[in-house]
Amino acid sequence: MRLAVSQWFAIARLTALEAARQPIVFLLGIGTVLLISFLPMVLSHTMGESAKFVRDGSLAFMLLSGLILGAYAACATLTLELRRGTVSVVLSKPVDRAVFFLAKYAGIGGVLIAYAVGITLATMLSVRAAVEPYVLDWRIAAPLLGASFLACLLAGLLNFYLRRPFPSNACFLLLVFLSGAFIYGGFYDQAGNSVPFASLYDLRIITAAVLITLAILVLAGLSVVLATRFSSTPTLSICSAALLLGLLSDYMFGRHADTSWIAKILHMALPNWQHFWVVDVLAGPGAIPLAYVGQASLYALLYLTGICCLAVVSFKHMELKL
C-alpha cells in the first residue's frame, strides 16, 4: 500500500510538471488573465453595472479556457506517451495500471486547480477595479496588469540565465504575483485608506469559481478517459460534442425523459453543465448557497468516479505498444 501511494505521488507530480510545461498552458493562462485585466478598460455603455459585466465576462472566460485546457492537457500528457511507448516502459515496472491512470488524472487536475485559483484571483481584482461605474481603480488595475508582464519578464530572465523552463515558471510566477496583488489590494480602498482585509472584494465570486472548477475537472476526467483510446483530434472533438450536448441536455433530453427511455438515458449519461454555471444568481445581492455547492460537488464526484472506474477497467485490458 505504501509503495502504491509513493508511486501515485511520483507519477502525479511528474504529470503536473509535464502539463505545466506545455506552451498552451502558458498561452491560455496569460491570455485569459490579460483579457480579464483589460475588461474594465474596454467596456462601455454598462448602464451603471460595470462590475456585473466584468464579473460575468471573466467567469465565462474562465469556463471556456479551462475546458479547452483540460481537454488539451489530457491529450498532451497521456496520448503522446501512449504513442511514444513511454507508458509501456513505466508499466513494465511494478506499477499497477489503476495507480498509473489515477495519478495521471490527479496531476492534470492539480494543474487545472492552480489555473482556476489564478483566474479567480484575477477576476476578483478586475471586478474590484471596476466596482464604481465609469471609474477605474488604478490602485488595483495597475498591479493586476503588472502581474502578467512581471511574470513573463522574470520567467524570461530565468530561462536565459539559468535555463529554467519558461512556460511553467511564468505560470508559477503569475500565480505568485496575482496573490501578491490580491493581498495588497485587500488592505486599501480607492483613496488609499486602510480597510479591513478583503472587505471590498466580491467574495461571492469564490463559490461561482468553485462550480466552474468542478466543470473543468469533470471534462478533464472525460478527456483522460478518451485519451486512452483515441488520438488528440478525436478526443478534442468528442469533448466538444459532450460540452455542447451537456449544455443543451435539459432542453433536448430532459423534457422528454418521462416519455422516452432513450432521452432519459442520454439525459442521465451526459454531464449537465448547467449545474455548474449559475452566475445569474449573483445578480444584485444574491449569493450561491453553500448547500448547492455541496450538491454540485457530490454530482461531480460521482460522475468522475463512474467514468474513472470504467476507464480503469478499460485501461487494464488495453494492449500497449512499445
Structural summary, described in words:
With 322 residues, the protein is mostly helical. The protein has one domain. It has twelve helices and no strands. The longest helix is centred in the N-terminal third of the chain and has 35 residues. It is globular and about 65 Å long. It starts with a helix and ends in a 6-residue tail after the last helix.
List the helices and strands and how they pair.
Layout: H1 2-20, H2 23-42, H3 50-84, H4 86-91, H5 97-129, H6 138-162, H7 166-185, H8 204-227, H9 232-247, H10 249-252, H11 261-269, H12 290-316
Helix pairs in contact: 1-5, 2-3, 2-5, 2-6, 2-7, 3-5, 3-8, 3-9, 5-6, 5-7, 5-8, 5-12, 6-7, 8-9, 8-12
